Amino acid sequence: MKYGAFAMASAIAIVAANGALAESHVTPEAEVLHYWTSGGEAKSVAVLQEEFAANGGTWTDMPVAGGGGDAAGTALRARVLSGNAPTAAQIKGPSIQEWYQEGVLADISDVAEANNWGELLPASIASHMKCDGTWCAVPVNVHRVDWIWANTEILAANNIEMPTTWDEFNAAAETLQAAGIIPLAHGGQAWQDATVFETVVLGLGGPDFYQKALVDLDPEALGSDTMVAVFDQMRTLRGYVDDNFSGRDWNLATAMVMNGEAAFQIMGDWAKGEFLAAGQEPGVDFTCASTPGEGFLYNVDSFAMFEVGGEAKEAGQELLAELVMGPTFQEVFNMNKGSIPARTDVALDGFDSCAQTSSADMAASSDGGSLLPSYAHGMALFGAQAGAITDVVTAHFNSDMSSEDAVQMLTDAVANSM
Ligand code: BGC
């Protein structure tokens, strides 16, 4: 179906249902709760808003500022508890299943089946979108978390190559620090600490260790010497961050790399959306490389629809689900957002070199068994367990706690959260 073919002014919406085009004399409505509020994010979500409007829909925006989605999660809970759920909300990973178990999600299997989602999505992504065999969410993209972003000019001026081991990273940071440059741009929010932490777990421990520690929550892995070494590296990294990082948003940290105030940022590829929105080019103004070590940490954004009464809202949910999985949206949105499409049949020709690397590495990691869910971005664990880990990571990063004490606290916190 060609979405653009429908006139925006049309009050008659046509939506797909049960494989057939059904005509309905309602204007599809959607109130959409999301947390895409930075420059690159806002540009990306505008693609969806425009497509929704072009198909006769009325979009009510409910953006909740705060990277990583913690504030959005709180806002969503308040809305659902007060019996006023939004039509759709940006949620992902195991929390989709948590909401499903509360009995508040709408079943979007009709749209999914009519549009062959089962064949268009990799099994690993499809499994996150299904609840008890029905489709309960629609995937937007695949973000990779384990990336380092660098200011190309600063690296060249200081004869630094992109680091391929954590020792090389530390050596580069020492050189930069001696030259009076902030080595690592970082913000002061717990989820940003968790983002860096999980890349260090993957890099120093390897994919099997990551799986045991942050997916299986194996007490032996959590309490191991490897985990002590991970916290040692976190302490080292803390020394490369400037003093004003408290409370800083992730996109302001990206801006520091962009403006030449800092050399590196460790952040998922939504950071690339910021560079691109500012007109910067990969390989020219900024450089991307995966963080040291093997593997790929994936983070899939998705929307779930909430049980809301009324024909117009139901039509809005169907239209939204269909558009999000549409090939045009998956291409245009992800080019802006920094991610790659969730659908496997969208050509990446027009995508930049970082996206090409992401796609190739994802395929190789999937074959090699090192494609792993990001714990820091809600793909691996239920909220309580992820929160227990993040509390320890951030308490350690923001104090002079020893690595041994952090490891002890980590094993206790995880045990108490089960
Ligand atoms: C989301 C991204 C978002 C980032 C910063 C991540 O958890 O998956 O879509 O851009 O947080 O808010």
From TrEMBL:
Keyword list, A-Z: Signal, Transport
Family: Belongs to the bacterial solute-binding protein 1 family.
Name of protein: Probable sugar-binding periplasmic protein
UniProt signal peptide: 1-22
GO cellular component: periplasmic space
Coiled-coil annotated residue ranges, if any: none
Subcellular locations according to the entry: Periplasm
Function: Part of a binding-protein-dependent transport system for a sugar.
